[in-house]
């Protein structure tokens, strides 16, 4: 357990994590919450390709360099084609994604940007055309969970690539 630093004080503005600087190593605090997020992710039975695409797209939208880096590497390790990863930022115009993937990506964008326009019945109908109820709940949990991870890593400045060794991501062969 780390020594508590009172509100209004900063123990170290940046700390080292495997040679990289970050504001706070958040997994050391609220450990039960951290473990619960990991357990939630592990319990979701959505197709791994969909998970990878959605996590990467949401991370792009939220500007989380750590998560973009991690999810590109994970997708590559799971066999995703590099061209599709390059097209993900422009998936609306790309022909490389299935109708189901496109529905998942649109749902991910709608939920991630919920404050901009809300969720309309037409949005729900569009995603339900491709996902049964159980799949849709799992997809929504994936989207919500990656939004939490993005916000943690952006808030505490987790450096991209800083956990590659622990997570086995160096095997992706990306520098």
TrEMBL record:
Signal peptide: none annotated. InterPro entries: AhpD-like, AhpD_core, CMD-like. It comes from Neisseria macacae ATCC 33926. It comes from the Bacteria. Residues 39-109 form the Carboxymuconolactone decarboxylase-like domain. Gene3D superfamilies: AhpD-like. This is Alkylhydroperoxidase AhpD core. NCBIfam families: ahpD_dom.
